Amino acid sequence: MKLKINNLTQRYRRVTALKDVSLQLRGGDTCLLLGPNGSGKTTLMKLIAGIASPSSGEITLDGMPIGPKTKARIAYMPTENYFYNYMSVRDAGKYYADFFADFDRAAYEARIDRAELDPRAPIRTLSSGMSAKLRLSLILSRDAKVMMFDEPINGVDMLTRDWVLDEIAARRSPERILLISTHLVEQAERLANCALFLRHGKLVREGTMDALCRESSLEDLYREIYGSRREEEASC
Questions:
Q1: Is 149:168 a contact under the CB 8 Å cutoff?
Q2: In the prediction, which pLDDT does 228 show?
Q3: Which string of b and e fits 117-143 if b means at least 16 CB within 10 Å?
Q4: Region of 216 on the Ramachandran plot (φ > 0 left; ψ -120 to 50 alpha; else beta)
Q5: Are the C-beta atoms of 205 and 212 separated by less than 8 Å?
Q6: How far apart are the first and last CA of the chain?
Q7: Cβ atoms of residues 41 and 35 within 8 Å
Q8: Which candidate, 47, 36, 89, 87, places its Cα nearest to that of 179?
Q9: Phi, psi (deg, nearest 5) at residue 69
């Protein structure tokens, strides 16, 4: 299993969201995608998922260009809700089952039970934490070979955060790539064996956790790369 990105650039009118990004991920990699808001993390995930097409460059999965055939092997959890207002928690499972052949209904029902989600509950009534649990339960109930999570622990309480991280950790596999974007470096660090640092759309640092954290913690390295908190606040 190999996800390969070559010279990837994405422009939106006058804004360049990604600039000449190249990297490789392999089966067994659980990688943190780090950077302030506006650094290109969500753009990169959407391009890998095939939701958008790059301005230039190439993404391949096991040598196959990203497209309709690779979508069946890639799962992406966005930050925003994407359900119809009439849907219940149970309806969301039916919706995924219709769209994805690798979706496991039994696994989904077990996850929403562990998450204490009422299958009959309208999705529009869920709290932000419950909504995060629902979206995660849907993604993790697929058998996708690449799973991506955009800020999965942002804006949720401590207990929900622990549940989310434990559920993601349970899906690590030598045959699967996990990519997780987050600002909460200290909490998510235990999941990963590698990290990617984006800054203003450029990949400025990457490596294994052992190599990156040889002399300092990942949190200290984050501060070193991005400077003061003012830069992060300015980019929001």
A1: yes
A2: 58
A3: beeeeebeebeebbbbbbbbbbbbbbb
A4: beta
A5: yes
A6: 35
A7: yes
A8: 47
A9: -75, -35
84/185 Cα distance (integer angstroms): 32
Summarize pLDDT for 85-137 with one digit per residue, the tens. 889 999 999 999 999 999 999 999 999 999 999 999 999 999 988 999 999 99
Cα 121-123-125 angle, rounded to 5 deg: 80
Residue 5 tokens read as 């990105």
Residue 196 near residue 23 (C-beta atoms within 8 A): yes
Determine contact, residues 177/31, Cβ cutoff 8 Å.
Answer: yes
| Count of beta carbons in the 10 Å neighbourhood of residue 215 | 7
According to DSSP H, which parts of the chain are helical? 41-49, 68-71, 89-99, 105-114, 128-140, 158-169, 185-188, 209-212, 218-226, 229-234
The model's pTM is 0.91
Q: How far apart are CA 225 and CA 52, in angstroms?
A: 28
Question: CA-CA distance, 101 to 114, in Å (whole number)?
Answer: 23
Q: Do 39 and 226 meet the contact criterion of CB atoms below 8 Å apart? A: no
Q: Which residue has the tokens 């070979």?
A: 145
Greatest Cα pair distance in the chain: 52
Alpha helices by DSSP H, listed for 158-204, are 158-169, 185-188
Q: Exposure of 202 by Cβ count < 10 A (0-12 exposed, 13-18 middle, 19+ buried)?
A: middle
Q: Which of 189, 172, 182 is nearest to 42 (CA)?
A: 182
Q: For residue 60, how far is the Cα from the chain centroid?
A: 18
Would you give the DSSP letter of residue 218?
H
